[in-house]
Each structure stands twice: as structure tokens, then as C-alpha cells.
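Long-time lurker, first post. I've been practising inverse folding by hand and with some scripts of my own, and I keep getting stuck on stretches where the C-alpha cells seem ambiguous. Below is the full C-alpha cell string for one chain I'm working on. Before anyone asks, I'm not after the true native sequence, just a reasonable design that respects the backbone. If someone could post their per-position residues I'd love to compare against what I wrote down in my notebook.
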């Protein structure tokens, strides 16, 4: 059977823990060229800096070739149906890394191919970012037990993946958002059930100042994601009290770390200067996208 990676919830706690060790090995140059002679297509409806560069470099490190296709090249579901695109790519390439608007596109790909499909972002989850984030935290703390990861902002795809992976690895996950921007209940309920097995906590606290009081890590993301431009004015009003700024940070633990998956909109979800401060892990997160995604490719194609 082929190996897909659409959600961090697809893996067990044991798999996630062993993946951290694999990522360490990859980072230290201990890997095989499992993609030698293979072609991997990057199908990107959404533009990207970190996702594209880290995947292309990782594929080449493992000996593979990349074929980059943006929305202008193929017009997913517009110029040609998703099903037809999937069936054609299945005849030519050995794997697909897809960064798409709709998670249903990824499901369609899995149903119409025999090659591995990797979710490089969808409206439901951003699992590759979550893998890099957990590896970043692992490097700092070496242990997840009793750690409090507090996410402040939109309950979006990032928040969903962080909730699921935190539950699997035993972190306490607390998030703070306005009521209308909560993580989808199906995902949060799934994360809560997983967390109960590991005796860790899943919690929503509407007030961000209360939410961060126990934080070892404060994480935030853009309030207006790509494709939500028509909601910008409303979102800026709704999230005005959810900025990660020095005042909010001062209410957390003394040596709290700040995480952001980037790109950041400084002056909106995060105050100017914090991304480049000593407490920020944003650039470590970006670097670890390379190591964790290379490890993911190694795992799926070994």
C-alpha cells in the first residue's frame, strides 16, 4: 500500500516520537538517497517561500528531481478537473506534494493515484508545519511533558494541526480565539480524545491574557490567510485584542518562547520586532521545515 501524509492525526504517538529521532538523523546527514531516479511534483495552488524551497532542497538532497506546477500551469478544477490532473500525474511522477485551497482536492488525489500524496497545506490542516514545530520545541526542551503550548489567534489549519500533534506528543495545548474563529469541533474533539490517553490538556480560553499565563511557548499566525482577502476588514476588528505583543508576553512565564510559522504581518497578529527578538523561534521553525520534510520524504519512500 502507498503511504500518504494528509494529517498529523494519521500517525500514532509512537510514530511521532520515532519521527523526531529520524529528523535528528536527517539533520546530521545520516540518510539514504531514497529518491534517486524519482520525480516529485510540487502542485501549488498557493504561492510559498518556505514550503517550496524546503521541499525542493529536501528532494534534491535525497537524490530526486522536482517538477513545480503552480495554479497558472494547471488550473486545478478550472482548466481541467482535479481527477484528470491526478490521473495524468500518476502516469508520470513518483509522488505529489500538494499545497491547495481545499482538503477535498487532496482526498481526490489519493483516490485517483497509486503514488504518495503529501499535504503541504490545505484549508483543514498544515501538517508539515506542525512536524517542524514539534521538532523545534523538541530541540529546545528535550521533553514535552507538562509543557504548555498556547496558540493565540485564528483557529485555522495551523491551529488544527498543532492541536492534534500536541495531543499525540503529550503537550498541553491551550488556544485563545474569538468564539466564531475556534478550531473545527471535529478536529478539537479528536485532539481532546487523543490527549486524554496521554493525560495532557486541550483547552480553549477566549481571553488571551488569561490563556498565556501558564505558557512556555506562545504561538501565533496571520489573521488573514491567502484567499481570505475579502474578510480582511472584519478580521482585523475581530482579532484586535489578540495581538502577541510585549504586554501579552509579560503575562506569561519569564522565559517564554515565541513561535510563528511565517509569513508574519507585523503590526497585526504580532508586534513589530518580536519575530527578530531573542525569544523568537521563527527562524528555527523555518530551518526545521527542511529537516522534517526531508525526513518525511525519507519515511514515505524508504
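-- Answer (accepted) --
I ran through it position by position. Result:
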Amino acid at each position: 500500500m502507498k503511504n500518504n501524509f494528509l494529517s498529523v492525526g494519521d500517525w500514532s504517538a509512537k510514530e511521532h516520537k520515532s519521527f523526531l529521532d529520524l529528523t535528528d538523523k536527517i539533520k546530521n546527514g545520516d540518510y539514504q538517497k531514497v529518491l534517486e531516479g524519482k520525480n516529485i511534483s510540487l502542485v501549488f495552488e498557493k504561492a510559498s517561500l518556505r514550503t517550496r524551497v524546503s521541499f525542493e532542497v529536501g528532494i534534491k538532497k535525497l537524490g530526486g528531481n522536482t517538477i513545480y506546477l503552480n495554479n497558472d500551469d494547471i488550473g486545478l478544477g478550472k482548466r481541467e478537473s482535479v481527477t484528470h490532473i491526478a490521473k495524468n500525474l500518476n502516469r508520470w511522477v513518483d509522488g505529489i506534494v500538494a499545497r491547495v485551497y481545499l482538503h477535498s482536492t487532496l482526498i481526490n488525489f489519493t483516490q485517483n493515484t497509486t503514488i504518495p500524496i503529501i499535504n503541504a497545506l490545505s484549508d483543514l490542516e498544515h501538517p508539515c508545519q506542525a512536524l517542524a514545530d514539534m521538532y523545534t520545541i523538541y530541540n529546545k526542551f528535550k521533553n514535552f511533558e507538562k509543557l504548555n503550548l498556547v496558540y493565540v489567534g485564528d483557529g485555522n489549519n495551523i491551529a488544527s494541526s498543532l492541536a492534534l500533534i500536541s495531543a499525540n506528543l503529550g503537550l498541553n495545548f491551550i488556544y485563545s480565539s474569538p468564539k466564531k474563529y475556534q478550531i473545527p469541533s471535529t478536529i478539537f474533539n479528536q485532539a481532546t480524545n487523543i490527549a486524554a490517553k496521554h493525560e495532557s490538556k486541550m483547552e480553549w480560553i477566549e481571553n488571551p491574557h488569561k490563556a498565556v499565563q501558564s505558557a512556555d511557548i506562545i504561538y501565533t499566525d496571520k489573521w488573514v490567510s491567502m484567499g481570505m482577502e475579502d474578510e480582511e476588514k472584519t478580521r482585523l476588528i475581530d482579532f484586535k485584542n489578540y495581538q502577541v505583543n510585549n504586554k501579552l508576553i509579560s503575562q506569561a512565564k519569564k522565559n517564554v518562547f515565541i513561535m510563528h510559522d511565517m509569513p508574519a504581518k507585523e503590526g497585526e497578529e504580532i508586534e513589530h520586532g518580536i519575530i527578530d527578538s531573542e525569544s523568537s523561534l521563527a527562524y528555527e521553525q523555518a530551518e526545521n521545515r527542511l529537516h522534517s520534510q526531508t525526513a518525511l520524504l525519507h519515511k514515505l519512500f524508504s
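A couple of notes from the structure itself: The chain has two domains: 8-126+286-301, 129-282. The chain has a mean pLDDT of 97. Happy to go over any region you disagree with.
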